[in-house]
# Entry
Amino acid sequence: MNSQHIGALILRFALGLTFFIHGFVKFQGGIENTAGFFETLGLPGFSAYVVAFIELIGGIAMILGFGTKVVAALFAIIMAGAIFKVKLAAGFLGNGQGTGYELDFVLLAMSVFFIFDKPASFSLDSRIFQSNASQ
# Structure
């Protein structure tokens, strides 16, 4: 295992944990509230359930390194949606009335990294697709 694998492991864990906690909080705080917020944005309320489920289950999968590319793509879609639908008007650092999209941007960049990265050591993907990981 080299330093690049260690770096990717740390990033994968941080990304997965962040999304897991965000999904958990959506369910814990009352997913109906999140669904209502989505509706104020012009999105269907059920999409809040989809996003929260992807964040919760996808976060666990990302930590384990299972389905990393697919999960990362879903995370990237969620973050792009959050930036363009919710936070872009507030600017990168916010406008004093709301937060900016700096965190969303970093999470998007991390997700895109894992879309293009090959399965690394200490991931279920590398164990399942072992012949591809060694190439």
Summary: The longest helix spans residues 3-28. The chain has a mean pLDDT of 92. The CA atoms of residues 2 and 44 lie 45 Å apart.
